[in-house]
Amino acid sequence: MTDAGVTWTDERVELLKKLWSDGLSASQIAAELGNVTRNAVIGKVHRLGLSGRAKDKAASAPQRPRKASRAPSAPTPITPPNRSNVVIAPIPQAVTLEEKAAGALVDEDVAIPMSERVTIMDLRESMCRWPMGDPTKPEFRFCGARSITGLPYCNHHARIAYQPVTDRRRERKLARA
DNA sequence: CCCTGATTCGC
DNA sequence: GCGAATCAGG
Predict the structure, then answer these.
(1) Same-domain pairing of A50 and A114
(2) Based on the domain organization, do A116 and A170 belong to the same domain?
(3) Residue A62 maps to a domain
(4) pTM above 0.70?
(5) Residue A88: inside a domain
(6) CA-to-C1' distance for A137 and C8, Å?
(7) CB count, 10 Å around CB of A69?
């Protein structure tokens, strides 16, 4: 019980760190934590000094020329650059008639830029269950990308799966009033 | 258009 | 300390 999570508890911070260093985007982490916006996550990340995961530019683009009343701030400690994410698994997967019939969907599947596909054995909670291929064949796989809590699909496929009328947008700005 | 993180600044 | 608003880039 206690709070439903309106503060940055240790657990949350830990999860935040984990997910962040795991390579998840701020919006994904925000969705995962719940009750927080992507901005909140980013803000916290910066406050914790976790910023600059795989990026390293440091002074290269004057952000906003507004009122700069803040000190130059300290240079980011930076982190050891490295996050080898070997993701290569083209998986042959012949196109079936069904898939051809799906046309657009096939196109979507092929266009999926992220993650390796997984078998049902490797399918874990919070993994995208978007089917790929013929379920009757052993080559059948799932997307396997990080899914949004509460949803069976990842960000990308969730949008494809639930296309009511474009009103979704992930109810991001709706949270504000 | 969608998304990403970065920064500022009022609270 | 927190996060919305804003900025800047992909």
Answers:
(1) no
(2) yes
(3) no
(4) no
(5) no
(6) 47
(7) 5
Q: Residues by CB within 7 A of strand B: list them.
A: A 24-28, 38-39, 42-43, 45-46, 51-52, 55, 63-64, 66-70, 73, 155, 169-170, 172
Question: How high is the pLDDT of residue A93?
Answer: 44
Q: Cα(A4)–Cα(A34) distance, rounded to whole angstroms?
A: 10
- Domain-located, residue A63: no
* Co-location of A45 and A105 in the same domain: no
Strand C bases with any atom < 7 A from protein Cβ? 1-9
List the domain range (segments joined by +) for residue A24. 1-54+74-80
pLDDT tens digits, one per residue of A39-58? 999 999 999 887 775 444 44
Average pLDDT, chain A: 64
